[in-house]
Every structure is written in C-alpha cells, then in structure tokens.
Amino acid sequence: MNAPHLPPHLLFGTATAxxxxxxAAAEDGRGPSIWDAYCRTPGRVARGESxxxxxxxxxxxxxxxxxxxxxxxxxxxxxxxWPRVQPDGGGRPHPRGLAFYDxxxxxxxxxxxxxxxxxxxxDLPQALEETGGWRVxxxxxxxxxxxxxxxxxxxxxxxxxxTLNEPFCSAFVGHAVGRHAPGTREGAGALAAAHHLLxxxxxxxxxxxxxxxxxxxxxxxxxxxxxxxxxxxxxxAVERVRTLHNRTWFDPLFTGAYPDNERExxxxxxxxxxxxEGDLETIGRPLDFLGVNFYRPLMFRAAPHTEPDxxxxxxxxxxxxxxxxxxxxxxxMGWPVVPESFExxxxxxxxxxxxxxxxxxxxxxxxxxDEPDAGGRVRDTDRIAYLNEHxxxxxxxxxxxxxxxxxxxxSLLDNFEWAYxxxxxxxxxxxxxxxxxxxxxxxYHWYRDHVAAHRxxxx
Length: 459
Ligand code: FCB
Known about the structure:
Helices cover 40% and strands 14% of the residues. With 459 residues, the chain is an alpha/beta fold. It has a single domain (11-458), classed as TIM Barrel (Alpha-Beta Barrel).
C-alpha cells in the first residue's frame, strides 16, 4: 500500500496517555486518581481491570522511547499524571513524580523526538473529586497551580503543550453518561464540569504563557454528525447534539460566546449558575494550535426526552438518539470506518470557525482483533488500511485549505482502553500483558516506512 502524498511540512507522531500506559500506580508517592477509584468499583470496567500495571511504561519508558525513535517520528504525545505530581491535588510537588517526566523528556530529546505534553488526560486526583471535582470552580484554580509546577520544571525542554484532552468526555461521559470516571449521572453537575474544565484550560494557558512555554493548545474531539434522515426533526436533533458535543467547546474557545441555542438544548439546566462575568475572556485566550482527535462519525435521529421530570434531566438527554451507520466495516470498538467523514469534519470546522488556529490531529487510529500468528507476527492489515485511508482523507482536507500541521497515531502501544480494559487493542506495538513484552505489529513497520518516505520528501 502506498503512503498518500502529504505536504512535507506535516509532522508525524504517535500518542499515549499516563493512566493507559504507565502502571506503577502506587509508586514514588503517586496518589489515587478518579480512574483508580472508578476501576475499583465493581461492574465499571470490563473484567475488573485497571491501570495498576498497564504497560508498565513507568519502568520500561527507555524501551518505549527506543520504539518511538525506531518509528522515525518527529513528535511523541504523552500525558503527565497530575496525582504523580501532586498526590493530593495541591501543594508542593512530589519530587519523584516530577523526576519521571524529566527522565522521559530527556530520553525523547536524546532520541531526536520532540515531546508534546498533555497536562490532563482524565486522571483527576481523587482528593479533588472529594471536594467537588470539576463541578466546582476551585478545581480550575488547582489545575492552574499544577500547570505552573509542570511548566516551570519542563518548559525549558518541552515546546508543545496541550492543556486538556477531550473535555467533552471528562464532563459528559464522566458526569452524565457515567461510563468514565467519576461515573455519575448528573445534569447540572455535568454542565458545571464542562464550564470549569474550560476555565481550567484558560487559567492554564495564562500560566503557560507566563512561564514562557512555546506553543499552547487544547485537544478536542469534535464529532462529525450525520442526520439519520433529511427530516426537519432529525436535522434539529443533530443541531442539539452539535451543541452538546462540539459547540459547547468550540464557541467559547474560538468565538468568545456560548452557543446561541442553549435553552433549546439544555431546557431547565440552561441557567448555568456556575458562570461568572469574565469567564469567557479567560476561556477564549488565543491558542497556537488546536488538537483534534478523530475516530469515527456518529449518526443521530430525533427522539423523545427519556427523563419525564425536567429537574432530573441528564445533560445528555437532548432529544436525540444515536443510530448505527450501516454499510461500513467496524473496528473492535464497533466504530464504523468512514474516512471521508474525517475530511468533511476538518473542512466543516474550518468553515464554521474562521479564526481557528492551525490543527494538530492529536489522535487517530483503530482497534483491531490483532491475532498473532505462530511466529508472533501481527498482520494487522485492517489497521494499515484504516491509517492509510485516513491519511488520504487528511490530504484532501489540507488541499481544501485546512491548515493541519501534524498527525499522531493512537497509539504507540496496546494499552488500558478505559471502561473496555485491555481487550481493545489500538497499538502499533503489541503488548503481551503476561510478560509485558512489546512486539511491533506490521502497522509499526508500515508507519515507519511511511514516515521515512515523507521525511525524504522534506529534505
Ligand atoms: C480517545 C482517548 C484516548 C483513547 C482513544 C481510543 O477518546 O482520548 O485516550 O482511549 O479515544
């Protein structure tokens, strides 16, 4: 399969997140996070799995950096575990927790790979959850303190900073659907969490600028939304979902306003008592890049509200229900493979938000069955096809005028896929969870060759 032609300035990378790969959950003073607590709650995570050991990246980071270097990529995106740096979510940093990221960053730089640091990939210190978590404004200030600590320590070597990963998931999957930590079903709490996550982001941007950080951005997971039919009801339902999934983030960040259809979307929850004057200015501070994660499109149709008592209405009940998209191959996540949606999403965002900063595609990839053959080789041709087709779609979006500067494969390693545990494998590298040995899959070699060919065009 040939690598599609992409502009030479495009940078390539691969990505992971702390809780999904590090393990060493009780080591070097790390405090518990909401994900540790969630994993310990029976029935939450498949087979009762947790990130206690994960890929043991905390101890095997040197081997993993060698794998990253072997790919020849420009960038590696990882996240810092807040409860390693501040075990109780506040106060003086734990020296051993911070020292791990020092070692990791130095190893990357030595290998010629630029680190891209995400400050928050969902692992809130449990101590902060107990004082209200993202539902309370104070957590946004705690995040600013934590940001400052990490920026002061690593800002001399880390150029690209991402404040939050997918705040949609933190707020709504965590506090409304309840399928992610902290695993609650609230209405007002989820909307307060959304706002305080945005505020935390805004405060963190100020801290990063003040600390002299290089480039600062946020990673969102805007959805490409497809109406089930062309009916007026379905089109209106999709617009409500667009506010829930996309506009709640994009509008305050990039237009300085909250979405104009909030009352229609949130009903009695639209009063938003947690918002204060000046918040939009904090949230809307200029960014150097926007991270976009993309996996699959979603189809919706209109549906009656399921919660008859409006006071109990969960924040995700916007009068729409998801329907399966037929006619596409699905990955082991059950996600349809629709590369043209990737192109359409990027072009659509570019048209809707003219002031958007340059885009880094901070995650894209697929979970596949990945059976190793007798010799241990994983011939993951479906993953290779997925990546190839999505890179093709990316090229078309770039040719249509979207300013994309980087692309990261999710993920370097098979890892802890949240509520699905270890069964869903996204890695370019297979992890044998008994021995913790790493085995590059065919996709690893394909990506390496693709990056090499791309870099050759750069010279
Ligand atoms: C994204 C997450 C990432 C990973 C992929 C499959 O939503 O940011 O951690 O789980 O999905």
